Amino acid sequence: MKLKTAALLTLTATAFHSQAEECGRVTIADMNWNSATVIANVDRFILEHGYGCDAELIPGDTMPTGTSMIEKGQPDVAPELWSNSLKDALDKGVAEKRLRYAGKSLVDGGEEGFWIPKYLVDKHPEMATIEGVKKYAKLFEHPEDPDNSAFYSCPAGWNCQISAGHLFNALGLEESGFTIVDPGSSAGLSGSIAKAYERGEAWFGYYWAPTAVLGKYEMVKVDFGSGVDEAEFVGCTTQPECENPKPTMYPPSPVHTITTEEFATRAPEAYAYFAKRGFTNSDMNQLLAWMEDNQADGEEAMFHFLEEYPQIWQAWVPQDVVSKVQQAL
């Protein structure tokens, strides 16, 4: 019996060692925003303990990480890359067999829009549409001008200030009594939502997901009744010189996991994990809200996620990997 046990342990160790050799050292870009650092930490833990990889986090950011992967083949993995920002370069890297689009890290894509608190829609269901918001414009009190209604835009200097301003004009919001309020910063914008929500007041403005704010406060994205006109959005809505903007909903921004071709070829089982791994905005909003409330870093949020949301991550990996990760936890 002892001999059988020893042989089994030897086989297990050998299998683990060969899996680690196959996977080898894996470098993962740890981007400098919360959703990306959570995903990077989750990936590191699952690759290390579930697939026997020698996984390591290295600092990253969208442009330098993408460029380095194409030119130098490092890092092996960019867990959350907003791919539109360097789409041509990434597509060229794929065509030259340097990179692969492994999967979508945010399965809904990055989400932008004009939002109002859900309690307003519960009270006035038509306010889920832009026509309903305009009808009840007087409810949206301006913080400094009682004669006008407030539309909270993107902070000055951000790219979304251009699109929000064009859509403000395209939707005829000024004619309905709205004026643009510049919140000054991301903190100012999120603070205005928190203040309105805690007082049960009306709020209307631009926001995006995934974010901690949308995890804490239930908001409804206002329907413009226009659908998404991607050509209009790319060719006019986002362009500073656009003179005649037309209504369009924001198209989702694709958010991918990118790997090098060398990693995908060397470690096909670990690569398959990235093809399946993805967060909904709703789940990520909740996770980001927990991070903010607990002042947690990416590693602490990773442990919280793996311990509290097994039904999500266990669907990404085979049962033997689930067992290894659970043992490591």
TrEMBL record:
Signal sequence segment: 1-20
Protein source organism: Vibrio aquaticus
Xref: Gene3D superfamilies: Glycine betaine-binding periplasmic protein, domain 2, Periplasmic binding protein-like II
Domain of life per record: Bacteria
Source species taxonomy: Bacteria, Pseudomonadati, Pseudomonadota, Gammaproteobacteria, Vibrionales
Name this polypeptide is given: ABC transporter substrate-binding protein
Tagged with keyword Cell membrane: no
GO CC terms in record: ATP-binding cassette (ABC) transporter complex
Keywords associated with the record: Signal
One GO molecular-function entry: transmembrane transporter activity
ABC-type glycine betaine transport system substrate-binding domain segment(s): 25-308
